[in-house]
C-alpha cells in the first residue's frame, strides 16, 4: 500500500526538510515503508528560498516530488494540487511548520486501520493565539450549521483519507475549495482522534485576518443555507407585517381617535420588504445552484513538477 503525503509549503525553507525526514523516520518505524511526498510550493514570497530547500529534497530522496505553483492559490487549493499529483492508495495531509507533528502519525493510522474512510487529528489543547482560537471556533460552528457536520466530529489540517475520497475530491474544479465540504459530501464514515499540538518552531502563522475570512467564505460554495435564511427572514418579516396590520385595524376599532398613519405605513413597509426578501431568497436558490455547478475559475496553476527521473538515479548510483 502506497502512502502519499501531501504538504503545502509557504515560506517553509527552515522547516520543511526536518518535517520530511522526521516523517520518513516515523513511517519506517510504523513499518509503512511505501510512501511518497508531494510537496507543493504555493508561490512562496521568499526569493526562492523555499524552492531551493524543496529542490534539495528532490535531489536527496527519490520519493519526493515537488509541485511548483505559478501563483499563490491558498492552502486548500495547494493541497488539491498535491492530491492531483499523488499516486497513492492512502493520502495524508500535513503542515510544513512542525505543528502537525510526525510523531502523531501512528494515532491517525491506527484509527484509519479500523476501516474509516477519513480520519482527522484534532487538538485538545491548541498552541495558537486567542484570536486564532476564536477564529477556529467560529469556523467550527459555521461548518456545523452550513455543512451539517456531526457534532462530535473535530477536525484540523492533519488527516488521512482513502483513494476513492481523493478521486471524488479532485473532480471539484472551482477555485473556492473547502476540503471539509468536499469530504463531508463524499462519506460519513469519518473519525477523529486527539493528537498533541506542537508549537511553531520558526516564524509566525501566515494566516492574516483577510486570509482567514477568505478561507471561511469558501464554505458558502458548499451550502445554500444562507440563501434559505433570506427566504426564512422574508417570511418572518412578512408575518410581522401582517400581525402589525391586524393590530392597527383592531386598535382603530377600539380607539377610533388613534392616529394610524405612521403605524400603518411601517406595517406596509415591513410587509413588502419581507416579500422582497422572500422572493429574492427564492431567486437566490436558483442562482446559488447554478453557481455551485458552473463556477470555472482555476484552483491553481502549476508552473512545473520536479522529481528525480531514471537518469538521475543512475547518476547518483555512480
TrEMBL record:
InterPro entries found in the cross-reference section: Glyco_trans_2-like (IPR001173), Glycosyltransferase_2 (IPR050256), Nucleotide-diphossugar_trans (IPR029044)
One matching Pfam family: Glycos_transf_2
Limits of the Glycosyltransferase 2-like domain: 4-163
Superkingdom of the organism of origin: Bacteria
Single GO term (MF): glycosyltransferase activity
Main EC class the enzyme belongs to: transferase
Protein name stated in the entry: Glycosyltransferase
UniProt entry tagged with the keyword rRNA-binding: no
UniProt-listed Gene3D superfamilies: Spore Coat Polysaccharide Biosynthesis Protein SpsA, Chain A (3.90.550.10)
Lineage of origin: Bacteria, Bacillati, Bacillota, Clostridia, Lachnospirales
Transmembrane regions: 232-254, 266-287
Keywords: Cell membrane, Glycosyltransferase, Lipopolysaccharide biosynthesis, Membrane, Transferase, Transmembrane, Transmembrane helix
Enzyme Commission number: 2.4.-.-
SUPFAM superfamilies: Nucleotide-diphospho-sugar transferases (SSF53448)
Native species: Muricoprocola aceti
